[in-house]
Amino acid sequence: MVVGGGGREHALVRALGGSPSRPRVLCAPGNAGIAADARCFPVKADDIEGLLGLVRSEGVDFVVVGPEVPLVLGLADRLRALGIAVYGPGADGARLEASKTYTKRLLQKYAIPTAAAGLFDEVSPALAYLRARRAPIVVKADGLAAGKGVVVAQSLAEAEAAVRDMMEGGRFGQGGRQVLIEDCLLGEETSLLVVVSGRDYVILPTSQDHKRVGEGDVGPNTGGMGAYSPAEVVTPALLERIERTIVRPSVDAIAAEGIAFRGTLFIGIMLTAQGPQVLEFNTRFGDPETQAVLPRLASDPLELLWAAARGRLAGVRLSVDPDPAICVVVAARGYPEAYPSGDAITLPGSLPEGVTVLHAGTARDAAGRLVTAGGRVLGVTARAPTLLRAAELAYQACDALDCTSKYYRRDIGARQLRRP
Fold first, then answer.
1. Looking at residue 348, what is its pLDDT?
2. Residue 117 contacts residue 41 (beta carbons within 8 Å)
3. Parallel, antiparallel, or unpaired: how do β-strands 137-141 and 179-183 relate?
4. Phi and psi dihedrals of 266, rounded to 5?
5. Which helix (H) or strand (E) holds 310?
6. Domains of the chain
7. Distances 74 to 100, 120, 126, 296, 409 between C-alpha atoms, Å
8. Are the CB atoms for 276 and 241 separated by under 8 Å?
9. pLDDT digits over 144-160, tens only?
10. What is the mean pLDDT of residues 21-50?
11. Are strands 62-65 and 85-87 parallel, antiparallel or unpaired?
12. Which of 192, 240, 259, 333 has fewest C-beta within 10 Å?
């Protein structure tokens, strides 16, 4: 059973369902697109008791948890207590995503490269710290904020407004009562998805996300407007350095803290002139990185996640398809702020080989029509011999689908396509 109902979960359902072992795949709660690939149950991802009941009633053997919230609420702990294999960390491991200050302290304790930062739970000291630094500077809400709790302030005034908005304005609820203020790291960003089981790990293909809503990387941060894989800026030599200075030390640090981590460690990395540095940890598959990475796995993803969940990852080798993949997120216009819901969607009648439409915020209305039901609506994924061809195929499909409120960036992958 896959827990969740977004684009990441649709990608997981497709990947796991395609395993040679031919599993029966369930999803809770799923969405309109996932329902075509797996039996869906209307149990919300944060309804821990409901999910436990569903696992019992359906005889589920293995659970893959997509979103962060059920992990933070201890779903994996409860499942393991029932003897159910689960891919996803317990609440202690999920804290690495639930608290940015907790992760920053861990990175500092184990001397893992990361930006200098101050951690605050009162406004006045936070503002004083800001005034002693220089812009641009980064203000992060400590807790979960659906990928939107980071402000890269270009001026002191913008940074101060972000601090007040989070700490006094309650924009992210309890998640913004504490803030982390970091020096702004300059360079290119990349994402690493690492399958972890204790001190063993497997690094999945590299990818690069596009966080900001507007083309040219402008506007507010979102949950992600698109991604591509591989990120060629991460050369084999650089990946070896990242593994030596970040991945292995991070996995060992988590284990040294007494956390039996079994799940995905998502490491956001900035490639600075001084070397790679950690931006953040997430404790689940990234969205939309997963939609671009999983289609490139030539290995059986079910076998990989099952091995990690059972503590048998040592010796597992990954096989990767060399063809690049790209995912373009089709959002509702206005996202990540106010956006319409219930707009009808008409998908293309046919798709070229290598193109897949993954559903994120979709539903069926009373008349059975496919409609929008979220900020990020669809993820159009394409794989081809070159990134340019993959992008062309993805955008052809984006242009062909009909929805009055559709919005998508037209420059996903442009940075890599411009490289000499």
1. 93
2. no
3. antiparallel
4. -90, 120
5. none
6. 2-90 (3.40.50.20), 116-183 (3.30.1490.20), 188-309 (3.30.470.20), 325-417 (3.90.600.10)
7. 18, 26, 31, 31, 36
8. yes
9. 876 668 888 999 999 99
10. 98
11. parallel
12. 240
